Amino acid sequence: MVIVMKPDATEEQVKQIEALLKKLGLGVHISVGTERTIIGVIGDKRVLADTPLELMPGVDRLVPIVESFKLAGKTFKPEPTVIRIKGVAIGDKKIVIMAGPCAVENYDQIMQTAKFLKSRGVQFLRGGAYKPRTSPYSFQGLEEEGYRLLAEAARETGLLVVSEVISLASLEQAVKYVDVVQIGARNMQNFQLLREVGRMKIPVVLKRGLASTIEEWLNAAEYIMNEGNYNIILCERGIRTFETYTRNTLDLSAVPIIKDISHLPIIVDPSHGTGKWKLVTPMSRAAIAAGADGLMIEVHPEPKCALSDGPQSLNFETFDALVQEVAKIASAVGREW
Ligand code: PEP
Ligand code: MN
Fold it and tell me: 5 forms bridges with which residues in the sheet?
């Protein structure tokens, strides 16, 4: 349930309700909007049977939330969420691009890529330090050294950094080096990891699971938000279907659906979404046209030598072309690049 406060409700009145709900053992989440404040109430509402909340000063009305996800939905927060990290806004008019290799491989590779991306206006450097690979014999990542190299590239270029965490131990390391942690498709329902990322309050890119519905995905976000971390960027990265021509089927309908039912920003990863570098630019154009707030793109100085995901990685030249195409679509749909 949410408590919608009157537009002229005071901070004191909100605090009074918050204190009362907490005393009753309920979870309280406050969303301060431009027009009014909304209080999300989580827990067994039977404890409110003898408490006429609608009569309390400042309260406009009580609205039940019918969706299984509550804090991630629009009833709790009707305005779109804009996440701000060191001066970069995600979910605002300007498109955000997170780009870089699938895996951090060595100093030269990551530094060369970072300098190139920075010169093209990219805001975030991505790169995996811990790689959740399908085969245990594939390259598993440089682990903490990978995070360290990313942090060094960030210091050198001024880029922000996003990198995946696959466990509680990797999360503890990551927060020392990165601006945003990524929870990958394979860990979207690692509930313990979701909770801990929630407690850490670090911004997070939450990828959609390989075979997850939109409802399951938003419930994964709910786990993070319920711990008090609202800085979530959803990332559509394709789902499993019967189609084998592409690595996954990039579900771009998820973009307008998320915009309709959630306030969280959403980006699209056409690299994992298709598995083929030639499809990355066309699907990036489509993602921005569909209303995505940004893109996650795999870029490698020499894709044919990449230790992971070379076939879906752009080189510097093809990435340049992508940026030009995306800029055209962005301006056509009232966004900026
Ligand atoms: C990645 O971003 O490199 C990655 C492993 O992505 P996903 O979790 O979407 O497969
Ligand atoms: Mn990859």
Answer: 59
Contact at 8 Å (CB) between 293 and 83? Answer: no
Q: Does 235 contact ligand 1 (Cβ within 6 A)? A: no
Task: Report which secondary-structure segment, H or E, holds 262.
Answer: none
Which CA distances in Å does 85 have to 91, 146, 162, 168? 12, 22, 11, 23
Determine the atom of ligand 1 nearest the C-alpha atom of 235: 9
Task: At 303, list the tokens.
Answer: 């894709």
Q: Tens of pLDDT along 222-261?
A: 999 999 999 999 999 999 999 999 999 999 999 999 999 9
* Residue 146 Cβ contacting ligand 1 at under 6 Å: no
Instruction: Give the HSE-up count for residue 252: Cα atoms under 13 Å, Cβ half-sphere.
Output: 16
Residue whose C-alpha is closest to residue 111's, from 144, 146, 154: 154
- Helix or strand run (H / E) with residue 169: helix 168-174
pLDDT digits (tens, 9 = 90+) for 44-96: 888 998 888 999 999 999 999 999 999 999 999 999 999 999 999 999 999 99
Q: Which amino acid is at 117?
A: L
Q: What is the largest CA-CA distance in the chain?
A: 67
Ligand 1 site, residue 275, Cβ cutoff 6 A: no
Q: Is 300 in the pocket of ligand 1 (CB under 6 A)?
A: no
Q: Which ligand is nearest to the CA of 300?
A: 2
Task: Report how far ligand 1's centroid is from the alpha carbon of 102 (Å).
Answer: 8
Closest CA to 296 of 108, 136, 160, 141: 160
What Cα–Cα distance (Å) separates residue 312 from each residue in 251, 318, 324?
Answer: 17, 12, 19
- Cβ-contact 198, 224 below 8 angstroms: yes
pTM of the model: 0.97
